[in-house]
Amino acid sequence: MSKDLKLLNIQDLYACIDDTSILKGINLEIKPGEIHAIMGRNGSGKTTTANIIMGHPDYEVESGIVELNGENLLEMETWERAREGVFLSFQYPQSVPGLQVGNFLRKSVAAILGEEAAKGKEFRNKLKESMKELDIPSSFLGRYVNDGFSGGEKKRFEILQLMLMKPKLAILDETDSGLDIDGIRTVAKGINAAIRGTESGALIITHYSRILEHVKPDKIHVLISGKIVKTGGPELALELEERGYDWLEEGSED
Amino acid sequence: MVVNMADSDAREAVGDYKAGWHDPENSTIRFDAGLSEKVVRDISELKNEPEWMTEMRVKAFKHFDERPMPTWGNMSMLKQIDFESICYYLRSSKATENDWEDVPEDIRNTFDKLGIPDAEQKWLSGVTAQYESEAVYHSIREDLEKQGVIFLDMDSGLREYEELVKEWFGSVVPYSDNKFSALNTAVWSGGSFIYVPKGVHVELPVQAYFRINAKNMGQFERTLIIADEGSSIHYVEGCTAPTYSTDSLHSAVVELIALPGAHIRYSTVQNWSANVYNLVTKRGIAHEKAKIEWVDGNIGSKLTMKYPSVILKGEGSHAEVISVAYSGSGQHQDAGAKIHHLASNTTSKILSKSISKDGGRGSYRGLVKVSPKAENCKLNVVCDALILDEDSRSDTYPTMEVANPTARCEHEASVSKVSDNQLFYLMSRGHSEEEALALIVNGFFEPFTRELPMEYAVELNKLMALEMEGSIG
């Protein structure tokens, strides 16, 4: 694998919402097969980063580069990014009453991976297998997308989509929040199954180190006030757990 | 309504509205525009009707003439109807055929394009196809005929079963019910006459398709369905018309009679072009333990005023009205339901869903009445509206008159908008903005579409996806 090959390349990214500056020069590189984590307090810009990579219309990119395998994501519409291989597991997945889960999954896989990928035995087997892995009962397929789902069901449904859509880059926005230990373990299993041993990469956004114990990221970045102030290995998560963010905040002012 | 053709062909042909093409007008008989007692008598004479029918038509005409326009609904649109510019009778073929090969070629091509012969072979018990004023094609499966099921166009019904027609015609919707039921009774032509004998279950739906082709046309079909004790039938109707710059008028009357224990389901997907006034009276009477369901989809037309009704006359009878309405630019769908609980232990359910977009206007107008003698009735009304932009409008006019304290009433109403976050979520799954909107809209209509035969549901979804195209600014 070439050393220079970058799955995700973010350079000097500045972004705002309603004239409030949120990201103030983000630099982030993820290589194929790598899992990175971004940690930070509420309001530090974690979700903004995720939304900008996916192309949420509320955010304005002021300057900088966001590329996937060398392709400029910022010039693409959200659905083009999805078809290019970007997947976002939402912190608050939206409900679509009347749209059945099975139908939605088939249509979405077809939109992203092509009609053929959403047909036939192979798709059905993969669906069955993934649902089993995530402890999702088959009755789930007849329910409406996120309509009346519990918090845990929503998160597992996001991971089910991740497993079926086989993205090049998976962004997981606080997928662990609101889950109990078993839930975190199940979700981590799904993430590992989707990413490990492939050329895909992942960016995990979280407050807590617990999910990282199960996913084992290659790198951890600490985001404070719209800037990455520290990057380290998995050990950084434990340090943050112990010491909090204050020591980094002071450091960032230097 | 349901148009089974490749989207691309259709869009090339007529822009957004898929069924807006027209054939050259090859009429064999065309009445001059305008309405008078003479026109009414001429229609009756042409059809060689019994005198009682002629007299009923004339009485109805006089009532129509004297009766003022409704003072509710969309009065300004109603005022624009020019009754003198409408053609009240137009026949384009010599006879009603029972083989598509014998139907005049132009007309046959139109129904081919609409996918009717194809649907007939695949999933229907019988078909009647009406073009302008008369049925041009009619057939019913032999096995049903052998069981005594009568399925005819209304004119043939009157000729062949005069006594039955005389007994029931106008018994559910008298001509004096409203201005447009009077108009229909005066100039009716075509429609379906159905009788299902005791205990016979018609498994596959029967379908009627109504097509207006000429300009300034008035179509006034009349349908009467009698389901005898313990029988059941599902009747499906669809309708389309060409897009013209001048208006046409569709004013039908439908009467349903469900005798004890019978079950009638009547499904409509109305997709008239945006120059058609659709002013229809639909009502059924449910006898003891009978069940009547109206599944009513309103997608097209300029102005629709339609409130499918059920009179729950027999103890333990049940009514359901499930309707959807889509109002686009320049359209007003004033739709709803009426239920009269006259007997004890009767139950009813109304589900109304409306979508308005591009300045369209949707209104739900509903009336549920429980009479003083009707004990232990249950009624449930749910109306949901989805508004797709700031220019569009949705109103709800629900009325409940409950004169018996043992009734259990539930009423829920909601108005919602499509949120940016909902669209973003779906777009992040590879769906374009229009596709995402179509998924939301079809989901909103899902409680309706799941009640339709599968083939109709699929077409309705496609139709809505087309309506969502070009809707994103």
Overview in brief:
The complex is a heterodimer of chains A (254) and B (473). Chain A has 254 residues and is of the alpha/beta class.
Task: Explain what this protein looks like in three dimensions.
The complex is a heterodimer of chains A (254) and B (473). Chain A is an alpha/beta fold and 254 residues long. Chain A has a domain at 8-94 and 166-252: Rossmann fold (3-Layer(aba) Sandwich), CATH 3.40.50. Chain A is built from nine helices and twelve strands. Chain A has a six-stranded mixed beta sheet, sandwiched between helices. In chain A, 44% of the residues are buried. Chain B is built from 13 helices and 24 strands. In chain B, strands 5, 6, 8, 9, 11, 12, 14, 16, 17, 19, 21 and 23 form a twelve-stranded mixed beta sheet that branches. Helices cover 26% and strands 34% of the residues of chain B. The interface between A and B is medium-sized, with 32 and 24 residues.
> What spatial order of strands do you see in the largest sheet of chain A?
6-9-10-3-11-12
Report the C-alpha radius of gyration of chain B, rounded.
Answer: 21 Å
Shape of chain B: globular
Structural class of chain A: alpha/beta
Rg of chain A (C-alpha, Å):
18 Å
Low-confidence stretches of chain A: none
Which residues of chain B form runs of ≥5 with pLDDT under 50?
1-14
Determine the CATH topology of the domain at 8-94 and 166-252 in chain A: Rossmann fold
Most extensive interface, residues per chain?
A-B, 32 and 24 residues
